[in-house]
Amino acid sequence: MQNKEDYRALEARYYMPAFSRELMLVRGEGSRVWDADGKEYIDCVAGIAVCSTGHCHPAVTRAICEQAKRLIHCSNLYYVPGQAELAQKLVEKTGMAKAFFSNSGAEATDGALKLARVRTGRKKFVAFTHGFHGRTIGSLAVTHKPAIREPFEPLGIARTFVEYGDLDGLRRAVDADTAGVIVEPIQGEAGVIIPPDSFFEGIREICDESGALMIVDEVQTGMGRTGKWLAVQHTGVKPDIVMLAKGIASGFPMGALLARGGLEFRKGEHGSTFAGGPLACAAGLATFGVIEEVLPSVPEKGERFRAALSQYSPRVRGLMVGITVGDRCAEVQKRCAEKGVLVNCAADGNLRLVPPLVITPAEIDRACTVLKDALG
After folding, report:
1. Which of 88, 143, 281, 314 is the most exposed, fewest CB within 10 Å of its CB?
2. 3.20.20.70, 3.40.50.2000, 3.20.20.150, 3.40.640.10: which CATH number matches 59-293?
3. Based on the number of CB atoms within 10 Å of its own CB, is 201 exposed (0-12), middle (13-18) or buried (19 or more)?
4. Which pLDDT value is given to residue 1?
């Protein structure tokens, strides 16, 4: 590894400047990471809710290395080792009927939009304000934030945005040509916004009445992040289609599309060269095993965050924590990093914490102490 300044110069010369970043992280273990200068941090960002089992969990790294010695890639022209086994586990834990793998959450969203269109014969979608579903052309079409969507319009997908939580507005927006309603059970990029359970009950009712499909984006909230395998499971509502990614393979690029019985792609309707490859499935299966072990502890860890940060009225569901900070968000994020804790500013002045599910009580206490000091 080159020194930090030389590396920054190299990137500036050869890499498109799509990101704003300062730290150079070079190593991780559990809920901790180290930068190029050797400084240690408690990581409450976890690759944006990706490193569900922590950094470099031994079970995950071992599974990847062992699979890499046998078969790295074979394409979906052939049966893929681990693919059916991982699909079975996901189906059993989510209550869906079948799975299809992708390489990212955005790809999973694109697949969901395609599946909804081809099975309903309808063309339009309804999404929600402040929702985020990805940056591909399809997923961006149903992503609300104007600053990242409008420069790329027209996006070729008819959709209407309704205020998050507004069932009356949703009822007015859904019509006979609505293929699906796409919704996050908790809006992560918006800053951990948690609506009442009745919102999802209402969406289910409107979809049932209209024939539109209920599409739930669990890319950030799924895989145990909220204390259940899916965040929508807190509500008792069963969706038609679910998207997963982020925490599904501990940082190995992977996503998944899950659907209820009667909803599936037929031969030739969808495909992918890399999706659900041997390495991804090995990482996913190992990740699944670790999450099964730690999942019972997630609600308690979330309550530990809630109790420690209660004076700031945190929004907490498992290990998703949001605090409204306002204009000071960037300042608080910087002060936390200076004191050895990584947190993230989401939209609208909201601080977001999505640490690894394996974070320890002592690490939670330390992170909260630093955060409270930064908040003043």
Report:
1. 88
2. 3.40.640.10
3. middle
4. 56
